[in-house]
Design a protein that fits this description.
Length: 201
């Protein structure tokens, strides 16, 4: 399978690329998992996040945001003392905080997924030039969403982190044009082509 230039260093990363990354996602629990893995990744490598994914799931009740929102100091200590866990109290506390913020968006809009996809009109965006490998680390859309998340109290979710999430959950298709996943998304999901500058149609 010809794919993006990720230089797959282990099988789990290839599986993630081939079966999850960029496929339009419409499930709140998975949205929260992806988003919180991005928050945990700040300053670290994505390879490490995939390697520690099962540890994260174990620590955070499978990324059940309702359970996480009720965590207390004992849960923070439990997670901090879990073997193999990234021992960043600030990030762990941020995930608990973000679970509460996530609940508020669900309360207001019915689902986080519905709120997030409203920024792209429910369609996967194909930015002109991205399919050739000219991919930024952030853009106008990620700036806008990051501002909204910050306003709503989310932490560790700046514009670069948000852009990575938009790629992962399929709002932006940044697979290379010769990657079968690019064609699969274009053939099976509603898409819209946009210029790169400030998301103008």
């Amino acid at each position: 399978m010809s794919s993006c230039d990720w230089g797959f260093s282990f099988e789990a990363m290839k599986t993630y690329h081939d079966t999850e990354w960029g496929i339009p996602l419409h499930d709140d629990q998975k949205q929260f998992e992806f988003l919180m893995m991005e928050a945990m990744q700040c300053g670290l490598s994505w390879d490490l996040m995939i390697k520690k994914r099962e540890i994260f799931r174990s620590c955070f009740d499978g990324f059940d945001f309702d359970r996480i929102a009720a965590y207390d100091e004992a849960d923070v200590d439990r997670i901090m003392n879990t073997e193999g866990m990234i021992r960043s109290r600030r990030k762990i506390e941020a995930i608990i905080n973000n679970a509460k913020c996530f609940q508020q968006i669900r309360k207001e809009y019915g689902s986080f997924d519905q709120w997030l996809w409203s920024f792209s009109g429910g369609k996967t965006i194909l930015y002109i030039g991205h399919e050739k490998g000219s991919i930024p680390v952030s853009n106008g859309l990620s700036d806008q969403i990051a501002r909204e998340l910050k306003k709503r109290g989310f932490k560790f979710l700046g514009t670069v982190t948000v852009y990575s999430h938009l790629q992962a959950c399929g709002i932006i298709n940044d697979h290379g044009k010769d990657c079968p996943r690019y064609k699969y998304i274009v053939d099976n999901y509603p898409t819209v082509r946009k210029r790169r500058f400030m998301e103008k149609p």
